[in-house]
Specification:
About 45% of the residues lie in helices and about 15% in strands. It is an alpha/beta fold. It has 2 domains: about 1-155 and about 345-360, Rossmann fold, CATH 3.40.50; about 160-340, Rossmann fold. A 7-stranded parallel sheet has the order 3-2-1-4-5-6-7, with helices on both faces. Helix 1 links the parallel strand 1 (about 1-5) and strand 2. Helix 3 packs across helix 4, helix 8 crosses helix 13 (about 310-320) and helix 11 (about 275-280) crosses helix 14 (about 325-340). The longest helix is centred in the C-terminal third of the chain and has 18 residues, at about 325-340. The radius of gyration is 21 Å and the shape is elongated.
Length: about 375
């Protein structure tokens, strides 16, 4: 197939990374993929490095209508089979371009949304929706989207469960981070903010350390300076500053994951968390809130633990795995197997391909 992916953001975030991975693995399956994205930022640079053709077009302001015309001309000239959009602005623009060129449009929904782009546009004859979890799919159905027009395709990670870092590599990482081998290392990956539960985790550190002093907590991801300082103050007030490290944004997350023992994600909500998926693929048990799509990823008690969003429940779960390394490792192994079967990039690309074929040839 000849596939045009359209996304209205080029920054470093979940949807952009999803487009990058999907384009690469659709290419590996023999399809021609071109990505439309804003001209500046992380995404076009990464697409260039991966050898994926791009159309860099303005997606906002007075030039946006001209971009829609450019897309429709490209679709016709290159005999594009399907247009696949990501994020709301790209969906509006892609649906118009697809309608002009008379080509089916599929829109991936990455977060729970009430936008009319997903509630009303799917009623047309050329627009379908892909949800990244059944949690999102059910939310769309509740908002009136036709059941026949919504498909679920889970996110997939490039981390290969069969190629995780070796024990020696993990020891090297711990040495760089000044973390002893016998210390239980708990990590949180992604934005360091209130939504993701960073403050809740820092507030939980004190009670955990009182019961299990040989433990350390590490945050990997971007934090606003003021918010990070407030977290440092909480740790200092609790006399646990020596047990908390903020690494900031890193480009070697897969390498760092290998050195962790446990991953936490006490977020308010998640659609289909890449942090959970990446951790599972790395063979790590995840402790996450029982929210959104998390129960679809984590088999509670088997591949990780699901908890209520409060300090007592979070702390108890951390101590449960920190004090029983055998259980922790058993859950990590089970998580790796589940990720390999369901949440890796080759599986995601294959499942998306099946959606394309189903739409193009409904028989």
């Amino acid at each position: 197939m000849n596939i045009l992916q359209i996304i209205s953001s080029s920054r470093t975030s979940g949807a952009e990374k999803h487009v990058m991975v999907l384009a690469q693995y659709l290419q590996k399956r023999g399809h021609t993929v071109t990505v439309v994205c804003p001209p500046d930022g992380w995404l076009p640079e990464q697409l260039d490095l991966a050898g994926i053709p791009t159309m860099r077009l303005p997606m906002r302001g007075k030039l946006a209508p001209k971009s829609v015309i450019a897309m429709s001309k490209f679709i016709k000239a290159n005999k594009v089979d399907v247009v696949h959009t990501h994020l709301t602005r790209a969906t509006y623009m892609g649906v118009i371009a697809g309608a002009i060129a008379k080509v089916p449009v599929i829109s991936t929904v990455h977060v729970l949304t009430k936008d009319a782009a997903y509630r009303w546009l799917p009623r047309g004859n050329r627009h379908w929706v892909v949800a990244v979890s059944d949690f999102l799919r059910n939310g769309l159905l509740a908002r009136g989207v036709s059941e026949q027009r919504v498909h679920t395709v889970y996110n997939g990670t490039e981390i290969d469960p069969d190629l995780v870092p070796s024990a020696a590599q993990n020891l090297e990482v711990r040495k760089e981070l000044s973390i002893a081998d016998d210390v239980v290392l708990v990590g949180q990956i992604g934005r360091v903010d209130e939504f993701k539960g960073a403050q809740l985790l820092v507030e939980t550190v004190k009670s955990v350390v009182l019961s299990h002093p040989n433990i350390h907590f590490m945050f990997i991801g971007q934090a606003q300076p003021e918010f990070e300082q407030s977290l440092r103050q909480i740790a200092e007030d609790g006399h646990v500053s020596d047990h908390v490290t903020f690494l900031g944004v890193r480009n070697d997350v897969a390498r760092l994951l290998g050195a962790l023992d446990i991953v936490t994600l006490p977020s308010i909500n998640e659609a289909c968390s890449m942090a959970i998926i990446e951790s599972m693929a790395s063979g790590k048990p995840v402790i996450a809130t029982r929210a959104g799509g998390n129960p679809e990823l984590i088999d509670n008690g088997i591949t990780g633990l699901l908890v209520e969003r409060n300090s007592e429940a979070l702390g108890a779960a951390i101590l449960e795995l920190a004090t029983d390394r055998e259980k922790s490792e058993r859950m990590g192994t089970a998580a790796s197997v589940r990720a390999k079967n369901t949440f890796i990039a080759p599986v995601m690309a294959k499942n998306m391909e099946e959606v394309y074929f189903r739409i193009l040839d409904p028989k």
